[in-house]
Amino acid sequence: MSRSLFIPPPGPSELRALPKGPLKRVKPEALFSPEALRRAWLKVKATGGGAGVDGMTIGRFESELEPNLARLRSEILSGRYRPQKVKRLLVPKPNGGLRPLALWALRDKVVQRVVYDCIEPYFERQFLACSYGFRPGRGVADVIKAVTAQREAHRRWVADIDIKDCFDSLDSGLMLRFVRRQVRDRLILKLIKAWLGARVFNALSGPRTTAGASQGAVISPLLANVYLHQVDLQLIRQGYHLIRYADDALICCRRKEEARHALEATAKALQRVRLELNPHKSGVVHFDEGFKFVGVFFLRNEHFYL
Fold first, then answer.
1. pLDDT digits (tens, 9 = 90+) for 7-16
2. Which 3 state secondary structure label does DSSP give 32?
3. Pairwise CA distance, residues 127 & 122, whole Å
């Protein structure tokens, strides 16, 4: 099997200016400055979304924006901040089944956005070029180019990878261990631990559970990439041509047997971080048969948006 070197794309000037080591300490007053909270609020507002368990809507929050942000800042700096319980919704998937979605209170989304903006560059500088989902300056168009390049390189056998219940299965203990490799600030770690351990409120039925890195949290896409980066490393070190977008991935190969081995290697890599391959949605396929990836159908030498 040929080996390939994946070099992360060059980052912005502020990314290159970061210290080489992990983020050790940030002054809370600077991290949660009024300006930082306002910037975070604008980003949260732009994404929309419903109210959390407190019933606070975007309109109501904005009607008293300055007092709300000042109160939130005071809670954080005094150590009184605690995340509210999280609503869990079951959203129908396009191909059947239900996807659990966490609905957070707006105040918690704002705090998560501040932390996200602070720590993302420290992880972004280490992520591999095979990862495309929820990363600045990368998206589906880049995935299409990557898949097309592999096809033109005669890697037409594909290990189509789907991770079983990925976001709900990310282990919080392992997650914190992976985060600590780049973030040592006590307050940020305390906040991330609190979000991972936030209680899930379900008014209908069911046992009380914790939110973890569930889909719906502002910070969950970054945390998922931090976690799955460990899988990327394992597969790239074995020389596989991996293309990952969040919890969906492909490994392109020149032979069918190689694709089968790639699927087995992926299952082992996932087991090391306490995840599983979804056997019903994963398998080996050829470009001539066609397959769907990131909302695009690849068939022979063409692709079609679904």
1. 333 344 445 5
2. coil
3. 9
